[in-house]
Amino acid sequence: MGIRTGEQYINSLRARKPEVWLGGRKVEDLYSEDVFKQPIHEIAKLYDMQFDPEYQDKITHMCEETGERVNNAFLVPRSHEDLMARSRLFETYARATFGLMGRTPDFLNVVVTSMASNSWFLDKYNPDWSVNIRNYYRHIRDNDLFLTHAIINPQNDRSKASYEQKDLFTHLGTVKETKDGLVVRGAKMLATLAPITDEVIIYSFPGFQPGDERYALAFAIPIDTPGLRIICREPMQDGKRSVFDHPLASRYEEMDAILAFDDVSVPWDRVFMYNNVEAANSLYPMTGIAQQPAHQSGVRGYVKLAFATEVACKVADSIGVDGFLNVQNDLGELVQAVETIRALLRVSEYEYEVTKDGEYRPAPAPLETIRGLLPKMYPRAIEVMQIIGAGGLLMSPTGADFENTELRPDLDKYFGGREGVSAEERVRIFKLAWDLCGEAFGQRLLQYERYYTGDPIRKRAIFYNQYKRKSKFEMAEQALKDTTKPEKNLI
Ligand SMILES: Cc1cc2nc3c(=O)[nH]c(=O)nc-3n(C[C@H](O)[C@H](O)[C@H](O)COP(=O)(O)OP(=O)(O)OC[C@H]3O[C@@H](n4cnc5c(N)ncnc54)[C@H](O)[C@@H]3O)c2cc1C
Ligand SMILES: Nc1c(O)cccc1C(=O)O
């Protein structure tokens, strides 16, 4: 089939009945559920872009294996141009959602592409596993599927390993093998957008110890597999708020969920590994599933930071405060942050690596630097927005107020901005800002930037340790050598 339309995505969603729990009840019809309606349409728009002549060649390509048109997320990069083709896809999808939706289909499709194209390392453990992941890649590529993932254990007692938790199956683990496959039980988090996806893939960050065998597993199943329960967090909005009042929260809410597996059967052909601590710990380093998706999240994070910066600038301009030195200093800092991320992305794309199998990967150090900087830069952009918008952020009337003819003259008089900025224009700008910096929706966006890639503190520590392993500290050694020379040799 190859690329599918938004309508095809929606139709397949409507044909499924995953077990989704929301606010204490089972959702009967996902598509009619207010909270999911708009996000479903935002994802559908991305699918439709694949058929739009303006975007088609930017975000899709002809698959060599099938001769069908497929999304660039499924492209195994074999040249610098391929890397840039992916970059164009990431930026096109990110711009379509202002970088506010982190887990658009491209993210996990890139993960699976990387796993499949580097699956050879699994052969030494079980050749079926690498065959399975490659077939799975073909399946999602040729059906243009949308995946969620859950790679973290629920936060129960982080001071203990999985096998030491109160119940052996608090964290997701293998219960038994059958002739048809594995039976798995327990929970995994934090599956963003799970209710409105086609499939879920389970794997884990490295860090397994002996004793963790039953938890060292990776597999993928349809999201409506019997026994899989999707427990949604409290929604950040009810899905009925007006686009005028909540221009972003009403459209880009990404639901997050815990996945509880109640003796779920995973067919053998969907098992990518199990019962193997060494294989599970090798998954990240051997497959590039840190590097390739970091390219997507770097581009998306760049667009999101640039968007937040533009909104902060519009807030300042609309009330005439951007002539003040302190405001210019803060806004200049945000623009420099955006430029820093843009530059890091370009460095990662131009100083690419080529694996021994000829796969092109963006350079890891600049991408890891983005991962280290964005969790500080994005919250700072939000803080600057709050500081510049000040009391006005809390003082926006509603769209309904603007429609009231008795009230309207007062609104036009008291809510107008600087010369040339009408009341409605100023209020609209402030509402954009409030969704980002005041609403629960905006707080989630901030938490996402802090944690989407794991704990930023431990990530930075790993980054430093890798630097230390590689670096010979040559300049420092040279300077030390110079100062140990006898004084007479120094000029
Ligand atoms: C909005 C959002 C969306 C997300 N979407 C997804 C998704 O789609 N799929 C997915 O799989 N994951 C997703 N994540 C989850 C993300 O991967 C985790 O939040 C992240 O890895 C951090 O893990 P944690 O939340 O369990 O925090 P913890 O690991 O529990 O950390 C809690 C605190 O304790 C400290 N801490 C914990 N353990 C240690 C230790 N051993 N040493 C030192 N300090 C420690 C941390 O520094 C931190 O301050 C998402 C997260 C967010 C916030
Ligand atoms: N955060 C990630 C994820 O959830 C899956 C795969 C990779 C990453 C990452 O940031 O490296």
The global form is globular
Tell me the radius of gyration. Answer: 25 Å
CATH fold description of the largest domain: Butyryl-CoA Dehydrogenase, subunit A, domain 2
What's the total number of strands?
14
The unique ligands bound to this protein are: flavin-adenine dinucleotide, 3-hydroxyanthranilic acid
Which CATH architecture of the largest domain would you pick? Beta Barrel
Helix-strand pattern = HEEHHEEHHHEEEEEEEEHHHEEHHHHHHH
- Measured between the Cα atoms of the first and last residue, the distance is 74 Å
What is this structure's SSE topology?
Elements: H1 6-15, E1 19-22, E2 25-26, H2 34-49, H3 56-59, E3 60-62, E4 69-71, H4 80-96, H5 105-117, H6 127-143, E5 147-150, E6 173-177, E7 181-188, E8 199-202, E9 218-222, E10 228-232, E11 257-267, E12 271-273, H7 277-287, H8 291-318, H9 325-350, E13 353-354, E14 360-361, H10 364-389, H11 399-403, H12 408-414, H13 423-437, H14 440-451, H15 456-470, H16 474-484
Parallel strand pairs: 1-10, 5-8
Antiparallel strand pairs: 1-2, 3-4, 6-7, 7-11, 8-9, 9-12, 10-11, 13-14
Helix pairs in contact: 1-2, 4-8, 5-6, 5-8, 8-9, 8-10, 8-13, 9-10, 10-13, 10-14, 10-15, 13-14
The protein binds flavin-adenine dinucleotide and 3-hydroxyanthranilic acid.
Residues 111, 151, 289-290, 293-294, 297, 452-453 line the site of 3-hydroxyanthranilic acid.
Protein name: 4-hydroxyphenylacetate 3-hydroxylase
Domain HpaB/PvcC/4-BUDH C-terminal: 280-480
Keywords: FAD, Flavoprotein, Oxidoreductase
